[in-house]
Specification:
The chain has 852 residues and is α/β, with parallel strands linked by helices. The protein is 54% helix and 7% strand. The protein has a seven-stranded mixed β-sheet with strand order 2-1-7-3-6-5-4, with helices on both faces. The protein has a two-stranded antiparallel sheet with strand order 8-9. It starts with 6 loop residues before the first helix and ends with a helix.
Length: 852
């Protein structure tokens, strides 16, 4: 038994155990026997005057009483409070932070409020990345095949396909294909929760709606829960918006943000900056979770935030603070110039398709729909019909699309990201105009009726114009307006306070209207948009509020140009010119999400509004313009058919230029693949068959096509595997990819490679290894033939021996012994071979003895 903490918590713990015992109808002696603890331990645990039970006793009692899930977590928390004498202010902070972390950061339509985060959230995964090292894209060809008597290094990794399987798309519709980042993947598929275990600063990036805020709230809840329950405490987390950090000392910024955010979650006493100057517990740091760095529009201010973090983690108090920073992707120069090598970089991954099914079931279960699994299945079919399956893997889009489907399951889903947001906001406004006492208009009338009919009429006009008011606010925020929300809103003519109504009451009515709109929430004491993408969509809608403003905005966004000299233009494949030409420059990548909404809103109003600009941007070999369209397609923006055709023509022009470096030709095909799968596949197959291309680029082109249409690509991959002009390693990779779809054909190709004396011996052994992995019945014969070839160097013959032992067909012991006596073996190789010989004689050895 332990004591020293809160006696009230111990009393509550005892009460809950006694209640559970009574509900079960058990006696104390029965509980002791079933829990396998002593009767004294049970008696003490049920007595509030005794100390709290040990962790083991509590777990045994809870299991015997059938207490699971959140109820068992609560028992652990009470025990922790009963035995831990935490400072009262720290306990108050942790309790309030845990309540705040339960809230879902994304909006909810049904039944009118957002569900608890834990009811919906599915843990995502992260991939750690670093800048790619090695050869540049435009380096000269380097063939891997060398003399047979040399020891080649590891096979050069083939370029990874940028496209993942997804639904096909044609011109004029959304084409979504998630891409693999250009950096090299170091660790794949880490649980995002594992970030809590790290000791360094982490920068986590994801695209718009990628789950960054949900991740930080989950880390907050997990970290605080561990602290409160007395489990393995790694850090005490603190969630703070990035915008709260510039211009003030860190401790003061944390205190101000925490007080503003947690006052509505039960924080009774103001936290002062001194609270964050000391560690929460000796040896335990504060974990500062910084959200929304990308929402700071000023690059100089973002730099200030990162510089502050860098100064802290490199200063004398470095061990007292850790940081996890969430942001959309930032320019590498911003991060490298501040955090440099002192921060690990992670990419937050979208949901897998299996994850998406579970998320849909969670939403539909929360809405109380009958047969949520059946609804989720039909939802998946609706996504496929609308070519939205990949887009729905983005967490925010999943939440919105689930809600749209729940409201109208028989209605086709929207066709573009802009239309999705349009339909979603329409639902929010319908909820605001609910008829009856619960509707906001009725409540506003009840509040202001005593001021007369003129005041009520003015209020009705304001509520009628509320969408335009909020859109104007969003436009100002996107342009950099940092005034308090209520100051910015009340400065608009539509929201002026009518005569006779006290200013504070009018202020309260407007603030309530903004909150009830479903678009805004209170965060750190300030009204903010629920999500940055909602702000961007509304800002785009405001920019297109009239034909004149729409035309003016599109002109400003898409007519920036630079002069392109003829030799530079010729490098990219355009026809030679004697004079410079003007080349349109795509909008800045930081604006991609907003620009995508602008394109969708403009096309919704006038199908031809954006098409001329996008077509010009992609025309005449402008590869940067084509890449911009591909990025927009990935976001879910609808690409107009004329622009998609222009991109296809430009990309086809670039890929046809055999004088171009292989990289540029393949890059053009990749870009088109994201815009128009059908045309992109044709280009990729053409490049894969082009013998003037580097082998690794030919293989990557074939794999790009295979990711979308395996029926078209399998013959191409098989041809590459049999092509003597290809690198041997590339041929092996091609055969392995064929094995995913046609094992018989792959076996034939691999046997041919392993038997080909014209290839280097390393590649032949690799082909044999792939046969073993494939489970081919001819693998043993191929490996035996290779082992019998004494021209193979000893280290490769050892590798063949391992394969034969794996197949259960080791070579004759005398041949094995001859190999052991080969003078060419070094000491380590001789030890490894001796170990293999012992393993062959005693198969159990491999399970018990470490390999040298």
């Amino acid at each position: 038994m332990s004591s020293g903490g809160d006696p009230g918590a111990n009393a509550e713990l005892s009460r809950r155990l006694r209640q559970a015992l009574a509900d079960k109808g058990m006696r104390q002696s029965d509980l002791a026997a079933q829990a396998e603890v002593s009767k004294a331990a049970v008696s003490n645990a049920l007595n509030p005057d005794k100390g709290a039970p040990s962790q083991y006793t509590l777990e045994q009692l809870a299991g015997a009483l059938g207490i699971e899930g959140n109820q068992r977590k609560e028992l652990r928390r009470l025990r922790s409070e009963a035995i831990t004498n935490l400072p009262s202010q720290l306990r108050a902070y942790l309790t309030a932070a845990e309540r705040a972390a339960r809230e879902h950061p994304y909006p909810g339509v049904l039944p009118g409020v957002a569900p608890p985060l834990a009811a919906i959230y599915l843990h995502q995964r992260v991939r750690q990345g670093e800048l790619a090292s090695g050869a540049r894209w435009d380096s000269a060809d380097r063939y891997e095949d060398g003399p047979a008597d040399t020891r080649p290094g590891p096979e050069t990794a083939m370029g990874a396909s940028l496209a993942q399987p997804g639904s096909g798309a044609s011109m004029g519709v959304v084409a979504i294909t998630q891409g693999v980042p250009a950096h090299r993947i170091v660790e794949d598929g880490l649980s995002a929760d594992s970030l809590l275990n790290r000791q360094d600063t982490c920068l986590v990036t994801a695209g718009p709606g990628g789950g960054k805020s949900s991740l930080l709230r989950t880390l907050l809840q997990t970290g605080v829960g561990d602290f409160v329950q007395g489990l393995a405490v790694r850090a005490a987390p603190v969630l703070v918006p990035a915008a709260a950090l510039p211009g003030r000392p860190l401790a003061g910024a944390l205190a101000e943000a925490v007080n503003a955010d947690l006052s509505s979650h039960g924080l009774l006493e103001e936290i002062r900056p001194e609270f964050f100057l000391a560690p929460p517990r000796p040896g335990v740091p504060w974990l500062i979770l910084v959200d929304g760095l990308d929402e700071i529009t000023s690059a100089a201010t973002r730099h200030e935030v990162l510089r502050t973090v860098s100064a802290v983690i490199n200063g004398k108090d470095a061990g007292q603070y850790r940081f996890i920073i969430a942001s959309r992707p930032l320019p590498a120069s911003e991060v490298d110039s501040t955090l440099g090598a002192h921060a690990s970089r992670f990419d937050l991954q979208p949901f897998s398709f299996a994850d998406l099914e579970q998320v849909a079931r969670n939403w539909f279960s929360h809405f109380g729909l009958p047969d949520p699994e059946g609804v989720a299945e039909r939802f998946g079919q609706a996504l496929a019909a609308a070519s939205l399956a990949d887009l729905a893997r983005i967490p925010l889009m999943a939440s919105i699309l689930c809600q749209l489907h729940a409201v109208a399951p028989d209605k086709p889903l929207p066709a573009s990201r802009g239309q999705i947001y349009s339909d979603f906001i329409s639902l929010l406004y319908k909820r605001q105009h609910t008829v009856g006492a619960s509707g906001f208009r009725e409540q506003a009338r009840a509040t202001l009726h005593r001021y007369g009919s003129n005041a009520l009429a003015h209020t009705e006009r304001v509520l009628d114009h509320l969408p335009e008011v909020i859109a104007r606010l969003a436009d100002g925020r996107y342009a950099g307006d940092t005034r308090p929300t209520m100051t910015a809103v009340l400065s608009q003519a539509e929201t002026s306070c009518p005569p006779g109504i006290p200013g504070d009451e009018w202020h309260a009515v407007i603030r309530s209207a903004l909150q009830r709109s479903g678009l805004m929430t209170t965060y750190a004491g300030e009204l903010v948009f629920l999500h940055q993408t909602l702000l961007e969509y509304l800002a785009a809608r405001h920019a297109c509020r009239s034909p004149a403003s729409r035309a003016r905005t599109l002109e400003e966004v898409f007519t920036h140009a630079r002069w392109q000299w003829p030799w530079a233009a010729d490098i990219l494949g355009s026809r030679k010119r004697l004079a410079p030409r003007r080349l349109l420059i795509p909008p800045h990548p930081d604006d991609s999400s907003y620009i995508g909404f602008l394109i969708d809103v403009a096309q919704e109003q006038d199908p031809d509004a954006a098409s001329p600009y996008l077509r010009r941007l992609a025309a005449d070999g402008n590869i940067e313009g084509c890449r911009f369209l591909a990025e927009q397609a990935q976001l879910g923006t609808t690409i107009p058919a004329p622009a998609a055709r222009a991109a296809a023509e430009s990309c086809a022009l670039l890929t046809s230029r055999t004088t171009l470096r292989s990289y540029w030709r393949l890059e053009a095909a990749k870009i088109l693949m994201r815009i128009d799968h059908s045309s992109g596949i044709d280009l990729c197959i053409r490049l894969a068959q082009d013998t003037s291309m580097r082998s690794d680029w030919r293989l990557e082109a074939a794999q790009l096509a295979a990711d979308i249409d395996i029926d078209c690509a399998t013959p191409v991959l098989a041809a590459l595997a049999a092509d003597p002009t290809m690198y041997a390693s590339a041929r092996g990779h091609a055969a392995r990819r064929v094995a995913e779809f046609d094992k018989e054909l792959a076996t034939s190709l691999l046997v041919s490679l392993a038997s080909n004396r014209g290839l280097n011996r390393e590649s032949r052994v690799n082909a044999a290894r792939r046969l073993v992995d494939l489970g081919s019945p001819c693998a043993a014969a191929v490996c035996t033939a290779l082992f019998a070839d004494e021209a193979f160097p000893p280290y490769l013959r050892m590798r063949i021996v391992e394969l034969l032992i794996q197949l259960g067909a080791p070579p004759p012991e005398e041949q094995y012994g001859e190999l052991l006596q080969t003078p060419a073996l070094d000491t380590r190789e001789r030890q490894q071979l001796a170990w293999l010989l012992e393993e062959m004689n005693d198969p159990q050895l491999g399970n018990d003895s470490p390999r040298p």
